[in-house]
Amino acid sequence: MHLKDILTRLGIEANNSGTSTGTKWLPAQGSVVTSYSPVNGAVIGTVQTTDEHAYEAVMQQAQQAFLQWRNVPAPKRGDIVRQFGDALREYKADLGALVSYEMGKSLQEGLGEVQEMIDICDFAVGLSRQLYGLTMHSERPNHRMYEQWHPMGIVSIISAFNFPVAVWAWNTALALVCGNVCVWKPSSKTPLCAVACQHIMAKVLKANDLPEGISSLITGNPCGNLMNQDKRIPLISFTGSTRVGRLVAAAVAGRFGKTILELGGNNAIIISKDADLEMSVIGALFGAVGTAGQRCTSTRRLIIHKDVYNDFTARLVKAYGQLKIGDPLDENNHVGPVIDKDAVATYLSCIEKIKQQSGRFLVEGGVLNGLGFESGCYVKPCIAEVENHYEIVQEETFAPILYVMKYSDIEEAINMQNNVPQGLSSAIMTLNLREAEQFLSANGSDCGIANVNIGTSGAEIGGAFGGEKETGGGRESGSDAWKGYMRRQTNTINYSNTLPLAQGIKFDL
Ligand code: NAD
């Protein structure tokens, strides 16, 4: 794999503008962000971030573009998204490799992320002919009542580092077919993935002679605050930590804007005494160490029945012993680096807190040094025996640290699963139908995602994705998540020659 060729094909240069209105790249005076690869510590390139002047130019262009885009018939907007999906197919190998190199996830996961982008484009194309509203029966004679869905305007997408391309595509594909224009602010930890995506999008916009402002890119943390306050943005779709999500939610609600919030998780798998333990080991292992524990759906807690606890943890410890840690672009490795040295520091501080709070390590952690680990971002996945109420267990630590704990009956297990502030993904491994159904019932998991005999990690684009409580309550991707990107309007039409009022009210002169 020749990284230099990949970067060239994706339009990445040594120094890049981080501001684009579509096909045009704007000069900007914001600070310069350097992108280092966590794989080997090398500089991949720099990005000049968006200053206030360039931000203003992007927003004005987006406002103008919306006036045209909202009048393009939805199926024609769908055709543009179809072409974007085709362009992604063409660049899948290159973009997947860049995701792996800049973010540090395995090449297979990088490619999988681009596949998700392609899949959501396909989904959105079909959706562009299915933005259905309901028709209701009016209580008044010769009246017709129905609802329709209209575009909202500028949809701003703020994304996290761990899914540097897919989260943007989930939002953009849907928002575009709904008739909105999009402005993307990616994580400053993965800015080059965003620049590459914008180049791919630009090809489609150019080929169709579309106006500037339909799909724009801005970069740099200050843009987040500018958007939170900007009344021209009716919807901010935010993916990131609960800490920042709380700031965004409060600021946007303060101006009566809308948000879609996709925040942190603290996901658990219940391992029943009736589980297929072999399958459960695989589910728990991938969930906990995949993407080096940096998925919002990563498995953080295993709640294990006391009768199988010793057997299951012994199998898991053995499996951890076989993990190969190293370059994520080498398919023989299972675990790549975490994103940067700050993430390593967070991991180490979490390990200290586990010890202080009486946790006991079944597999010890630590930072790897030496040949192949020069970036300083490679850490050992570890397992700690804890109790659910420990302060550190109640938090999301974005690293490959797995907590194990015991339970006696299913009600206790469900209580433990629910007894954290977050509510994203959850799972039960069991062959017992009663337990499985109880877990999925109203008395069961309180999460946005609840699985049976599948781990917590990863999701298909066809379902609505998101979680409850401190995970923010937003939904993205499949099912009817598109409704979050449109405004609903109820219409009543009177085709009689009288004007009856609702609820039988009389108002005669
Ligand atoms: P983060 O909260 O640090 O950053 C997310 C984004 O917010 C970045 O683009 C950042 O630049 C921006 N930002 C920072 N300050 C801002 C402000 N004041 N206003 C607006 N935007 C601001 O998160 P991260 O470290 O990049 O990502 C990890 C977190 O994201 C984890 O908590 C993870 O669970 C969560 N996540 C959630 C989902 C989900 O779908 N629920 C998906 C992926 C990641």
Automatic annotation (TrEMBL):
<keyword id="KW-0520">NAD</keyword>
<dbReference type="Pfam" id="PF00171">
    <property type="entry name" value="Aldedh"/>
</dbReference>
<dbReference type="InterPro" id="IPR016163">
    <property type="entry name" value="Ald_DH_C"/>
</dbReference>
<protein>
    <recommendedName>
        <fullName>aldehyde dehydrogenase (NAD(+))</fullName>
        <ecNumber>1.2.1.3</ecNumber>
    </recommendedName>
</protein>
<feature type="domain" description="Aldehyde dehydrogenase">
    <location>
        <begin position="25"/>
        <end position="490"/>
    </location>
</feature>
<dbReference type="InterPro" id="IPR016162">
    <property type="entry name" value="Ald_DH_N"/>
</dbReference>
<dbReference type="InterPro" id="IPR015590">
    <property type="entry name" value="Aldehyde_DH_dom"/>
</dbReference>
<dbReference type="InterPro" id="IPR044638">
    <property type="entry name" value="ALDH7A1-like"/>
</dbReference>
<feature type="active site">
    <location>
        <position position="262"/>
    </location>
</feature>
<dbReference type="InterPro" id="IPR029510">
    <property type="entry name" value="Ald_DH_CS_GLU"/>
</dbReference>
<dbReference type="GO" id="GO:0004029">
    <property type="term" value="F:aldehyde dehydrogenase (NAD+) activity"/>
</dbReference>
<dbReference type="InterPro" id="IPR016161">
    <property type="entry name" value="Ald_DH/histidinol_DH"/>
</dbReference>
<comment type="similarity">
    <text>Belongs to the aldehyde dehydrogenase family.</text>
</comment>
<keyword id="KW-0560">Oxidoreductase</keyword>
<comment type="subunit">
    <text>Homotetramer.</text>
</comment>
